């Protein structure tokens, strides 16, 4: 059987819980999580190569970007819950991802994908792997940073970057080892801010174009929905034993956003606003958080199934 791009994308989604669970083990388990996570991240590059070689399918065109977002939001949710990176960094990254996805549905025509936007997911994965490595094996921080700098430089060469882009890669490659002089806490903060900065810088062109084509009123309507996963991840330190529902809910929110490209209406636009308001209310009365998470999970499961059934003809057409 020929391995297709869709096979690798499915593999990335199905195996994602494994490295997330292993992060809660000892150093050996975390090292295994780092290896598995890196291999899963590599499938993002490989499925792109296969899609270009054999041709893309409607299902593949839908799954690949969704798989990337699910990979990042799940990983960053677990990293923030473990205290490996600030929870507000993960929340801010989620806002950007959902905001741009929502704008893609609102803006007539397709928003162009910039070079930085293409690199964004790779940098997010790179930073996550580096954070896990330095937290788990802090005594070897300088070697990890040297290795990361070398990998970054090699990536720039293999990608045949030129001019300002390659100069940026060289600068980052030389800067990374210098960060070993920082304390672990400050190093993690700097690495997290790099991921956050690249994530939002890659959104500037989208925001500028979107705001020139839609009204401010329409833009403001999607803000509550974009903030929805950010509010939910803040529940992590307040949900007690129910915190495990948080990554499930956040992942389903992003899956829902992708499926809305195939079917959407006024009622679908109202749901995120309602659940955002309820999430804020639950923050004020923390005893409601478990009930809120359970209700959101049930709602998202049923709505995603409904949206998927409506999208099936488009996803599986020949």
From TrEMBL:
<keyword id="KW-1208">Phospholipid metabolism</keyword>
<protein>
    <submittedName>
        <fullName>CDP-alcohol phosphatidyltransferase</fullName>
    </submittedName>
</protein>
<feature type="transmembrane region" description="Helical">
    <location>
        <begin position="7"/>
        <end position="25"/>
    </location>
</feature>
<dbReference type="InterPro" id="IPR000462">
    <property type="entry name" value="CDP-OH_P_trans"/>
</dbReference>
<comment type="similarity">
    <text>Belongs to the CDP-alcohol phosphatidyltransferase class-I family.</text>
</comment>
<feature type="transmembrane region" description="Helical">
    <location>
        <begin position="219"/>
        <end position="236"/>
    </location>
</feature>
<dbReference type="InterPro" id="IPR050324">
    <property type="entry name" value="CDP-alcohol_PTase-I"/>
</dbReference>
<dbReference type="InterPro" id="IPR043130">
    <property type="entry name" value="CDP-OH_PTrfase_TM_dom"/>
</dbReference>
<keyword id="KW-0472">Membrane</keyword>
<feature type="transmembrane region" description="Helical">
    <location>
        <begin position="70"/>
        <end position="95"/>
    </location>
</feature>
<dbReference type="GO" id="GO:0016020">
    <property type="term" value="C:membrane"/>
</dbReference>
<keyword id="KW-0808">Transferase</keyword>
<dbReference type="GO" id="GO:0046474">
    <property type="term" value="P:glycerophospholipid biosynthetic process"/>
</dbReference>
<feature type="transmembrane region" description="Helical">
    <location>
        <begin position="125"/>
        <end position="154"/>
    </location>
</feature>
<keyword id="KW-1133">Transmembrane helix</keyword>
<dbReference type="InterPro" id="IPR048254">
    <property type="entry name" value="CDP_ALCOHOL_P_TRANSF_CS"/>
</dbReference>
<feature type="transmembrane region" description="Helical">
    <location>
        <begin position="269"/>
        <end position="285"/>
    </location>
</feature>
<keyword id="KW-0594">Phospholipid biosynthesis</keyword>
<feature type="transmembrane region" description="Helical">
    <location>
        <begin position="166"/>
        <end position="182"/>
    </location>
</feature>
<dbReference type="Pfam" id="PF01066">
    <property type="entry name" value="CDP-OH_P_transf"/>
</dbReference>
<feature type="transmembrane region" description="Helical">
    <location>
        <begin position="188"/>
        <end position="207"/>
    </location>
</feature>
<keyword id="KW-0812">Transmembrane</keyword>
<dbReference type="GO" id="GO:0016780">
    <property type="term" value="F:phosphotransferase activity, for other substituted phosphate groups"/>
</dbReference>
<feature type="transmembrane region" description="Helical">
    <location>
        <begin position="242"/>
        <end position="262"/>
    </location>
</feature>
<keyword id="KW-0443">Lipid metabolism</keyword>
<keyword id="KW-0444">Lipid biosynthesis</keyword>
């Amino acid at each position: 059987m020929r391995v297709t791009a869709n096979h690798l994308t499915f593999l990335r989604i199905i195996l994602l819980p494994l490295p997330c669970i292993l992060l809660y083990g000892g150093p050996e388990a975390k090292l295994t999580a780092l290896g598995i996570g890196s291999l899963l991240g590599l499938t993002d590059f490989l499925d792109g190569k296969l899609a270009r070689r054999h041709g893309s399918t409607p299902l593949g065109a839908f799954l690949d970007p969704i798989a990337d977002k699910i990979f990042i939001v799940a990983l960053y949710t677990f990293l923030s819950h473990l205290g490996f990176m600030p929870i507000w960094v993960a929340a801010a990254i989620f806002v950007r991802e959902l905001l741009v996805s929502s704008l893609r549905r609102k803006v007539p025509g397709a928003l162009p994908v910039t070079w930085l936007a293409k690199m964004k997911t790779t940098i997010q994965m790179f930073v996550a792997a580096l954070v896990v490595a330095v937290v788990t094996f802090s005594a070897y921080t300088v070697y990890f940073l040297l290795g990361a700098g070398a990998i970054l430089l090699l990536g720039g060469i293999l990608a045949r970057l030129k001019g300002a882009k390659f100069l940026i890669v060289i600068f980052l490659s030389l800067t990374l080892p210098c960060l070993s002089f920082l304390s672990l806490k400050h190093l993690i903060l700097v690495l997290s801010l790099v991921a956050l900065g690249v994530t939002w810088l890659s959104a500037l062109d989208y925001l500028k174009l979107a705001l020139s084509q839609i009204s401010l009123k329409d833009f403001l309507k999607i803000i509550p929905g974009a903030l929805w996963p950010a509010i939910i991840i803040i529940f992590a330190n307040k949900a007690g034993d129910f915190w495990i529902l948080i990554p499930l809910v956040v992942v389903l929110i992003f899956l829902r956003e992708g499926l809305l490209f195939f079917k959407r209406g006024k009622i679908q636009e109202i749901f995120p606003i309602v659940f955002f308001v309820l999430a804020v209310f639950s923050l004020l009365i923390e005893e409601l958080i478990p009930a809120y998470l359970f209700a959101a999970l049930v709602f998202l499961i049923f709505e995603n199934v409904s949206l998927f059934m409506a999208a099936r003809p488009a996803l599986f057409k020949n």
